[in-house]
Amino acid sequence: MAGLAAAASAATVASFQFQPSLSGSRFTLVAAPAASFRTQACGLRCWIAAKLKLRKALKRHVWQLQRNLDARRNDKLPHHLEAALLTENRTHRNMHHAYDVLIIIVTIVLMPYDSLGAATTDSGGEMASASSDLLAGSTYSENSMQQGPNPSEIRSPVQNEESAMSNGHYDGEPSLCIAVIGATGELARNKVFPALFALYYSGFLPRNVGIFGYSRKKITDEDLRAIIEANLTCRVDHHENCDEKLNEFLKRTYYIDAGHDNKDGMSRLNSRMTQIEGTRAANRIFYLAVPQEALLDVALPLADSAQTKQGWNRIIIEKPFGFTGLSSQRVTQSLLSRFEEKQIYRIDHLLGKDLIENLTVLRFSNLVFEPLWSRTYIRNVQVIFSEETATEIQGRYFGNYGIIRDIVHSHILQTIALFAMEPPVSLDGEDIRDEKVKVLRSIRKVDLEDVVLGQLKDTSGKVDRYTKSMTPTYFAAAMYIDNARWDGVPFLIKTGMGLMKNRAEIRIQFGHVPGNIYRERFGHDIDLDTNELVLRDQPEEAILLKVNNKVPGLGLQLDASELNLLYRDKYDTEVPDSYEHLLLDVLDGDSHLFMRSDELAAAWNVLTPVIHEIDQNRVAPELYEAGDKGPINAYYLAAKHGVRWDDDW
């Protein structure tokens, strides 16, 4: 700093500012247009680079130099000075042969006096005070350039790292603020904050990240940290420095208490974010973990008062996405009046499972499967999702929305769309969503005759709104896609709560071998010779392929066996939670697993007629026992469409 002060004192300096910010200390000098000042400052920067042998990545240093060079070019320097700067830049690009250098103590920003006069006067006495304190008694000479700063004033790399972490900002790296609206709710406590910590621990969040909780409860930062800490654990395969990382994460967590529709609260949230963002690029993610009825009350004030202008803003919205197609459309229109489509991420945590990601990987990266992915070879597709969840936990929720609006509308239809789509132009999120929406628009409207509804029997003896309702907790249906690839192929879906086991899988049954010479060996049950591909997420992650083979021994006896890939045997790693996967996608701007507005509308068009008919005619669901397989009529439905459900519940 002494060398910097000396350089500044020798130049014609209108004003300057020393500002600790989120990207490290920043020394800004606003100088009169004097060539000597620019040349001396460049020489000083060269001296720092040559003297400080800090073990940091040179490429970030070069990037900083190039950015400063670009800024200086905008100042319209004389040609001979620009040539000198180019020479300096080339010198530093070649320095990696001798030094491993990064300037992390200071960042010098050279700005012409005439273009920043207004900015300097806005700073007022604060800048002047800092100037007098810093430069008092400083002198400049050739000796100061040769001798450099006092070693006592140069911090070690470790000290600089700690300083940057305390401010939450690093040189050359945009800041990230993540706000969880509804921070004290069950979803935020049990899913969102643990997922954020897992990403932070694994190094997927930037080092200069700030986590903000926002809720109506009157609690403090420390109270929120205690709530979060109670639900945080390190994964089995990642326990190094767990306590240290946990403490770091909690120190970056802050709390704002305000109502959902409180503009003042959103303004306070914006102010606290701005305090730790400094002057660098700043990005923000807002996770709206609030009920659907409060969504717009939160989103609209947020759009007006809490968005950054220094980077991108993204909002995450939880399912269900509306109660009807009309209500969903109104919500979408309101959101699009304040946000761009690319800012909105409609999250369904079930789509963050490896099962879903493997759909496109298996199909498009394996020649053995891709040519078979059509009605020519595939006989039927089954999408199965079941949970053991108790009635008491889900009762109130299903009394409002039900399984059709909650799971079928988003998870099931999105799974079918990803499975059945045409090859996208690229893996870009928009290209994939373009193909998904084509599938959704091609799905035939569901007929009530091809639907089975079920409801879990109440065994608790309690009487509440849920037990009085006719809202289904089980749904099975046959769907068809009216396009050239899938014409005539039934897609059987089955999903329910309170069933025998947790199960999530996709079963692809292939057709029979034409003129199979071994047909009589399978007896009267011709389905035994059907090949089947199973993609399973629960009860354990696996990929299974059923093939026919000869049983070892004398004679010719055939058997259908499974070639299996069990993740636990193949991969020595813990499978990340789906929220981790999806939050990382939001951070990366990858939207392919999130529903776009036109996808949302197309999905409602598929289900709205049957929902309307069920509600209008008050169709009674078939009751089933907890821990059972579900309504028996689901088996008749499958038989009607030539499909046999797998009985491994």
UniProtKB/TrEMBL annotation:
It catalyses: D-glucose 6-phosphate + NADP(+) = 6-phospho-D-glucono-1,5-lactone + NADPH + H(+). One of its GO terms (molecular function) is glucose-6-phosphate dehydrogenase activity. Pathway: Carbohydrate degradation; pentose phosphate pathway; D-ribulose 5-phosphate from D-glucose 6-phosphate (oxidative stage): step 1/3. Residues 140-167 are annotated as: Disordered. Residues 180-358 form the Glucose-6-phosphate dehydrogenase NAD-binding domain. Residues 361-645 form the Glucose-6-phosphate dehydrogenase C-terminal domain. InterPro entries: G6P_DH (IPR001282), G6P_DH_C (IPR022675), G6P_DH_NAD-bd (IPR022674), NAD(P)-bd_dom_sf (IPR036291). Pfam families: G6PD_C, G6PD_N. GO terms for biological process: glucose metabolic process; pentose-phosphate shunt. Its EC number is 1.1.1.49. Keywords: Carbohydrate metabolism, Glucose metabolism, NADP, Oxidoreductase. Catalyzes the rate-limiting step of the oxidative pentose-phosphate pathway, which represents a route for the dissimilation of carbohydrates besides glycolysis. Belongs to the glucose-6-phosphate dehydrogenase family. This is Glucose-6-phosphate 1-dehydrogenase. It comes from Panicum miliaceum. The lineage of its organism: Eukaryota, Viridiplantae, Streptophyta, Embryophyta, Tracheophyta.
